[in-house]
Every structure is written in C-alpha cells, then in structure tokens.
Amino acid sequence: MRINPKIASRASTLGVAAAAIALLATTPAALAQKVCDGAELVTPGKLTVAYNGDMPGTGTRDGKLIGIDGDIMTLVAEKLGLEVEPALMEWAAEIESVKSRRVDIMHGMMGWTLPRTEVISMTDPIYFAGSLMTQRKGANITKLDQLKDKRIATVQGFAQVPELKMINPDVKLYETGDAAIRDLVAGRVDVLFLDPPMMQYISIQQPELNIESIPVTDPYDPKMPIITGKFQILFGMSREAPKLEQCINEAIAEIWNTCSNYKLASEYGFTDKFWFTPSGDNPRLGVDRPEDWQYPQLAGCE
Questions:
Q1: pLDDT at 12 over 50
Q2: Is the CATH number of domain 132-228 3.40.50.620?
Q3: Is the fold of 39-129+230-276 the same as that of 132-228?
Q4: Contact 49, 104 (CB under 8 A)
Q5: All structural domains of the chain with their residue ranges
C-alpha cells in the first residue's frame, strides 16, 4: 500500500504539534494552573519561599530546601505542581516580603499569634510545638511542680518568663541560648526553657552534651498558656493571595491524612507524637478560622 506523502507529512506535523502541546502541559506553570487555577503567584509556575536558615526548621542544600518545615514546604509545592524558589533573609524581612508580595510564602518554625493575623494570613498548622524542659540525662524532671526547688533558666525577653516566675521566682535569665546551654552542661542550671524545636534538635545532634528535652505534659492551664499550651507551626502568606492559600491548605490536609509530615519530621529525630498533638485550647476560632474549625490530625501512620 502506497502512502500519500502529503498526508504523511501533514500527519507528522500534527504529531509533532500534539507532542509539543503535551510537553507544554507538563511544565511547572501549566501544571500549577491545572492544579491550582487562579493562584496568585509572584512568578508563574514557582513558589517563592522566604526562609531564615535556622535548623531544624529550614535550610538549603544544593539549592533545595531542607529541614522539617523546608521538606514539608517542598512536598506542598510538589502537590501543587510548583517549583520552589528559596529566598534567604532575616526573620523580620520575611514578614515584610510576604506583605509586599516579593515572596509567596514564609516559613521556619513560625507560630500562630493574634497580632500576626492583623498583617498576614496563616495556613493550617503543619505540626505543633510545646514547651520542653531541657535537663541533664537522668535528672528525671517530668512535671512542673518539680521545678519549685530547681535552678531554672531561659533567655531574657522570652515570652515564658512571667509564667516561669509563677513557678519559681528565682528564674535565671541569660543573654543568649548558648550561654544557658553551657551552664546546663556544667551543672550550674537544672532545667532550661528555650526554643523547643531547636533544643530537641541539639539534644539529638550533640549526644556528647548528655542532655535531653522532656515535653511538658501537665494539663493546659489558662494561667500559664505558653508553658502548658501548644504553638501551631505553620506558613505565613499574603492576605492578597486567598486562592493560593486555599490550595496550600488543601495540600496540608492531604499531608496530615497521609502522615507525611510525621514521616518527614522523623528523619530529623522528631518521632514523638507530642509534635503532632494540639493542646486543649484553640485560639484561632472566631479569629481567622470559623467557630467549627478543628485541628488537623494524623492519619495513615500505621
């Protein structure tokens, strides 16, 4: 059978065109448009992400985000068909960059606070952080009432200072966390209250210090909401990007439902479900979430 060369040429041209269209449909910009139609991105096809490089939350390696928050952010972007564009900056600059739409989103062990709701939008939580009692191994301090006759310390200006003074008025205040840790290791302090994820990470990464961080498991006390409560760790976004925020929250919900956040955090030593269990209060209700909104929960971890 003889094939008409004109027909063959036309068919070949159509085939090449179809292949080109298919290829274009799989580019980051096209995929993002398909997955999250109408997303208010700074750069089409890319998720521009502000980070400050503080581990275990965020960092970069070979141009890719790392850390607990960084890995979760990367997974969110993948689910939306977006390419991550990291933007390193100081913490204060992150919020301003989000507000001015120089970046799409910020992250790095960022907690929900009421004042922040007045300037930016905040996503659903990706995990939770609560107070840790960092101590030398074998001290066996597991409850707050054990602190009354202990030498407790934190960094000057930290939010938990007034609450710690309710437990023990003789709280020692340090200029830096490094100085406080050195005194703990040297035996000049019994218990430290510092940044929870950072202290957990240090305890794991530097076993030679012979310290451990024990979660505060006392029931929630409204008189001590910082020490007995939990922080929602989340992402910050512009209030001018509601569609993108909706898509990201949907991706976060899927991550909770597949236990992906727990699995990623476990790679950094955060295997305790403490980091994925909320406290009894929910300050977001009626503020930036409806009254019937509930915390996400892990599923599919078995």
A1: no
A2: no
A3: yes
A4: yes
A5: 39-129+230-276, 132-228
Kind plus residue range of the DSSP H or E element containing 150: none
Q: What's the rounded Cα separation, in Å, for the pair 241 and 38?
A: 10
Comparing CA positions, the residue from 132, 237, 144, 146 lying closest to residue 193 is: 132
pTM comes to 0.82
- Tokens 């909706």 locate to 246
The conformation of residue 208, written as its DSSP 8-state character, comes to: G
Helices (H), the chain: 5-25, 28-35, 68-79, 91-99, 161-167, 177-186, 196-205, 225-228, 242-257, 260-266
Query: Does the pLDDT of residue 41 top 50, yes or no?
Result: yes
* 87 strand-pairing partners: 50
> Residue 73, class by beta-carbon neighbours within 10 Å (0-12 exposed, 13-18 middle, 19+ buried)?
buried
Return the residue matching tokens 């050195």: 182
For residues 164 and 227, is the Cβ–Cβ distance under 8 A? yes
Phi, psi of 129 (to 5 degrees): -130, 135
Q: What are phi and psi of 264, to 5 degrees?
A: -70, -40
- The DSSP secondary structure of 35-61, one letter per residue, reads HSTT---SBTTEEEEEE---TTT-EEE
Out of 3.40.50.300, 3.40.50.10890, 3.50.50.60, 3.40.190.10, which CATH number does the structure's domain 39-129+230-276 have?
Answer: 3.40.190.10
Exposed, middle or buried: residue 117 (CB in 10 Å: 0-12, 13-18, 19+)?
middle
pLDDT band at 281 (very low <50, low <70, confident <90, very high): confident
- Looking at the predicted structure, is the pLDDT value of residue 185 above 50? yes
CA atoms within 13 A on the CB side of 260: 18
